[in-house]
């Protein structure tokens, strides 16, 4: 079968013919893969922790939707079922043992398509049924978004936990008076803005430059505000929508400081971007974190529960929010240039194995 | 009566004779006041938000222990009771209305001895009984530590809330396997280290220079480890005691980065220092917050519940932990030089109104 | 306009012509009302706490969907919007002040159509916009189910809170291994079973007699198990689906004992039925509550947040779960016999004001 | 060495000479054992689940304080240390694996002195250091109360969790306006009343008959109210102290109904008594649980954390609350009549191995 592989330690990606060894597990035919920044970084040999499962090649791909084409007897799945595979696999720590490998405390986990386990950019794969998420067939190509959306679902879980620090809801028990600000307008930024809108927030999405038409269209359709932070009209934007929750999909120190400066008392900050850029010239940001009783959480990966919630969100809100508009290109597996070149106005590119 | 006053907007502190106007409240005779960095900053006109209650002078002092010398009928208190007054007084926001003015969301609160309300460095004061904490008489001069200790009790409350994000206790249900690192060796640092020891943590206290004898003695007596971070032997210190919880009493960006670098997966960081110093040259600290699923909280002030817990802690652990050793000087009200000059080896200086 | 009224203190219900006095609020045209057991009890003068808002008559009806036909300027709503009104209105207790009148601690609340406030079984009503829930138009007659479904959403909220007592999820982070048992097959029982299925439970619905065809059809369509408890084959039924969560929509002591006997260790029991029947011959049920570390919660009413979640559930799952099948009859306002006679195989009857 | 043994399946208790086989564990000399109702029920063959560890005899005793007299190298304990052993030992379920065998979900645990593991009523025992709680020597014979007090500490933990269901504290953030009612005046009832007083409750302790002098003296000394429920003056007693939290140490259905009838809205009920007596003639108690949004929890056993908190409570509050008054007799191991005859006015009897 065909598979997209990389050789950890060097640049490049190749569509290779490889053998699939039969296992007593669920056999899955890949339908779609999502492509994300991590894939491009792996292909460009920028992530030091990438390592193969066996031999010297690693099969790429951690975002996938597939269909069951063979299953052992007594399996939970049957032929034709749609499934999304989980990325991170548990090690032996206490958190891994209770199904929370997303909170692994010793780093001894594997991640499909990234470290120590072959990924899903290939025609077929065998998988343990416990790491497959059942998905409604009607979800179609939106199923390729389950993996990135599960991160957003973990953000919701973390938000729900952090807000228990104190009474945080509005005085009518809802979130109607609260604003969520999402920093970053890539696919995870847009998905985050839709998910937090769905739980009741007024949402502002932020970038430091004007947005392309296709992103603006999604925001308009769904009643999301956009703020171009290069305009520096913070006061006006905060009057339109207060910042009570901030979600940073970017990971730069500059944005972090903007958040700390502008967020309300008792604000909650969720960090999941990892660009690692920028710097902070002045330690007074700590004083602000203290004075405003802020709560800040890093959010990495997600649990099986978060995958299931992601699949539900995409299924339930797919048409209401026109989530398909997030998928901006569909390509064939052999179009490997995609890993080196980001299409203009890309929000999300997916590989369609039926093309 | 005599009172220590400042004139907001200019430097200096004066022992003045002022009139005490009778109110239908509890009359309290001041026994002790604690002196803290905030008092010294007020005297040196470094805090822009300081404002008088009436006229142009503000009576200084927010840390106090007093004794009831007069009380209206049907009061909860009787003559001779020991009491500690609360600093922050509620405004009208939802959090203030439920007794959580420490989480005030609009900034419209007053703080005795700091902003909009006269403080307790005076012979007598009248106080609403709802803002007086009942204190066991046996507490003696340790009662002057209730106010700073209530901040530590809020830290415990915030820690207990943040750790609900995920299963955080050791696999025997305790905190025996967990390390707390306290950054800062002033009175709040030392108090924090004792409080977190009392709830089960292995505690390391950190400063960037060797400690004076009197601080070392307190640490030794109570089984607290000390780490001189200028030695840079982090690896060794972390092997002795892992960093799962970090409490920063300093507020510098440099220490913040040390914490983010060295804390474990799922670590919890409590910030309450406000020095506002230092800088961060590199945005990769955000990547670490994300990858390690860290939770970070600013902690400001505390609630009445936190004051009560502080009084209990000081009463119960006073002799066990020799907490009296934290009080390094006792001075008279007229010794106003203390606001301009920190005694060598000071941990905590208190004013004793009976001297 | 026409309104269905009762005279508290005596039996009977009347379709009367009454005047609607203009108020500076949202004017709503009633589309549908749901009829529930409480309405029938009011009409039959069985509830001692029923009282009028003004005069001697009370307008009946607390389950409603309406459409905005007039709105003051600057209102959140515009002409044509669909809305569902809230039933319980806050008093002055601390919980009422933070929007949780469903947890009112002094009983000084009003309830539309029940106590101290006219209800919604009338052609039009004026309403404060803060007590109107915005509803998607596509929801259609399912909107009449928002009010009863908000109780189920509060059950979910209470369940989520109670399960924090200890780690409760399965060892893969989901609820896939957990069974919820719903006792009662009326509309709230069926709605509960669908809601708890949607959050991941395996659901068994229980009654002490065989079910009519139309209820069975809903269960079959949605993969819900049915257990006829008169068959007494508990062992078999519990092997098919373990009882980890039990929801009692009935309120009889006999069912309570069945739940306590059969539920698993660390089980959660939600009570919201109020039939008040049955008796318990033997105090050993308390020993079982202790030995199994059970958690039991009574759940009354719901908050605005719960209404919003109810509207979302009905909108999102309406067609997936064929929730329309729950509505078994649609009648005209003048068909007042419905309050004295329950149609055979009724799950839910609604009044359609356009018939 | 001497040991008190029973033969499960028949009545009687015997002081036997038995061999102690050396193990590579901590060797502990028993100082004190507490005697409780469970011990008397075992001796009278009333508990069907009692079973030996080996052979046909079981060494009795689950409440103990001991002193380390031998320890392997690298042990956490050293000669002379005081220790209290844990009763319940984990099986293999998920809760047992994370140190919460008190919430064991499959019943496959052992309990020293009760089921499947020899107890501590003997001169010496070997114990795994992980199941020994370190205790301050100054605790003296109060150490015999650690085991029953750990149950109370779990009650506190459960209370803290249940009250997160909604905002529950008073509007000044404390518990000052809240009343806790403890039903039962045996040792666990009295210990519960002291513990819940220590966390801020106004406490009423209840029994259905007048109390002996020695119990009244403890209540008086500590400011606990007593209510004789046979007097039926509930109204007056509830005016003196409202019932917001009820703790039932008895386990009878009659008391359960009294609690449900008299507790406030949003009340919390903790059950840990297991007498299993009484009956309920009327199902309307369920309606009250619903209408008042009550939360009810059974509480069984406790975790290592709860033991540690118990040891801390007894050490810190021992003299403040004169807890020694709870120990009403000290007997020798050979006085086996104690298991068949409860001394008049007994609160707690302990075996002193040095007598």
Q: Given the helix and strand composition of chain A, which structural class is it?
A: alpha/beta
Query: Roughly how many Å apart are the termini of chain A?
Result: 16 Å
Beta-strand portion of chain A reads: 15-25%
Q: What gyration radius of chain A follows from the Cα positions, in whole Å?
A: 21 Å
How many alpha or pi helices of chain A?
A: 9
Average pLDDT confidence of chain A is 96
Quaternary organization: homotetramer
Helix and strand element order of chain A? EEEHEEEEHEEEEHEHEHEHEHEHEHEE
Q: Share of helix among residues of chain A?
A: 10-25%
Name the overall outline of chain A.
globular
List keywords for this structure.
six-stranded parallel β-sheet; 19 strands; homotetramer; globular; 25% helix; alpha/beta; 355 residues
